[in-house]
Specification:
five-stranded mixed sheet, three-stranded antiparallel sheet, about 375 residues, alpha+beta, elongated
Length: about 375
């Protein structure tokens, strides 16, 4: 674990610095060291990219993550050398000219850092296992979306007083949170603040892009800038990086030092109002619609992908009614509504839960007699 921390720190610095060289190919080493915010932003962005590639493309592990981020570092080093060579031949580079002509405040970089690291802390294991996301949600719920909307609509320094900006930003952010919550509840019939904060996270990134496009032709001195607020946002971004990385280190270190705890999944079927007869059969009529809820609670100490197979069995044959795949985060519960149309006969409706595609984990039976 200590070796991984050391290697990741080195890779993070390299990848942030080299990607900054790509953006500023004509600047010297000393000039680049004066751009720590850009180095941190790009380091976080490519580290997040490495985590996603490791998780989605190859088997998630610390070793594979180091390999992926090393490959990306090598590719960026090659690209930086090509950029520097071309920059010396032609100093009129559009990217460099754009960045130098339209400087972006440190607060904007800090917001982007916070969005990326919050996504990792709220949605990417092992960082998301510890409920650090409670704290990561707060800026998205109470400030950032509204702040960016106000600054996009009223970007000049004297358009609003500072206190007015803060108050309106809070008001708009709470309204957006309420709207997202109502929409989420209408689809899922439950409120999940982590998911709502993730949607607000994505919205914040979009708002940052819109804000940058809005101010790109405005004189830097005329824009709204508050040095204390900018410093606060930078500190929050840095602290979020530290805490999210520490949470991942803590979870992995705990997994190494502590024996693996046996997990469990709660699997229930509800929604039957009838009473079973002496043989345990529920009586229905042909064509009757039966609305059931399949409840799953994940207590496996890790995120799970479940498969639920619903089969109708009688003495002569077996028919698959439905096959459902459901991802459930560790510690979360889901309810899956399922409708069954009763067909004549005496049968056993079998609900089978799979932790993988081949091994049955838990089975529930519903014995029905349909006349």
């Amino acid at each position: 674990m200590y070796l991984f921390i050391g290697l990741f720190t080195i890779e993070f610095i390299i990848i942030g610095f080299i990607s900054t060289v790509i953006l500023y190919p004509l600047k010297s080493f000393m000039q680049l060291t004066k751009k720590p915010i850009q180095i941190i932003v790009l380091g976080v962005a490519f580290s997040l990219l490495s985590i996603l590639i490791t998780k989605k493309v190859i088997e998630p592990s610390l070793n594979n993550f180091i390999i992926v981020i090393s490959i990306i570092s090598i590719l960026l080093i090659i690209l930086s050398k090509i950029r520097q060579k071309r920059a010396k031949e032609d100093k009129d580079i559009k990217i460099t000219k754009f960045i130098e002509r339209y400087p972006i405040s440190e607060a904007t970089y800090a917001i982007l850092i916070y969005c990326f690291i919050s996504y990792v802390g709220m949605n990417v294991p092992p960082f998301s296992i510890i409920p650090l996301w409670f704290g990561l949600c707060i800026p998205f719920i109470a400030f950032l979306p509204g702040y960016l909307i106000v600054n996009t609509l009223l970007p000049k320094q004297h358009d609003l007083e500072f206190i007015e900006r803060l108050g309106i930003s809070l008001f708009i952010s709470l309204i957006l949170m309420s709207i997202f919550g109502l929409v989420y509840n209408s689809f899922h019939h439950v409120i999940n603040m982590r998911h709502i904060a993730l949607y607000l996270d994505i919205l914040t990134v979009i708002l940052v892009i819109i804000y940058v496009l809005r101010i790109k032709n405005m004189d830097y001195k005329k824009r709204f800038i508050n040095e204390k607020l900018d410093r606060t946002l930078v500190i929050i971004a840095i602290l979020s990086i530290i805490f999210v990385l520490l949470s991942g280190i803590y979870v992995n270190a705990d997994a190494i030092t502590q024996p693996t705890q046996q997990g469990n999944t709660t699997f229930d079927i509800s929604g039957i109002s009838n009473t079973a007869d002496e043989e345990g059969y529920y009586h229905f009529t042909s064509g009757e619609e039966l609305s059931l809820n399949i409840s799953i609670q994940n207590q496996e100490n890790q995120d799970m992908n479940y498969t639920i197979s619903v089969q109708s069995r009688n003495d002569s044959d077996t028919n698959e009614v439905s096959n459902i795949t459901q991802e459930v985060k560790n510690g979360e519960s889901v309810e899956i509504p399922t409708n069954l149309t009763m067909t004549p006969g005496k049968k056993d409706i079998v609900f089978t839960l799979y932790k993988n595609q081949t091994q049955a984990y838990k089975i529930r039976h519903l014995y029905v007699n349909v006349e």
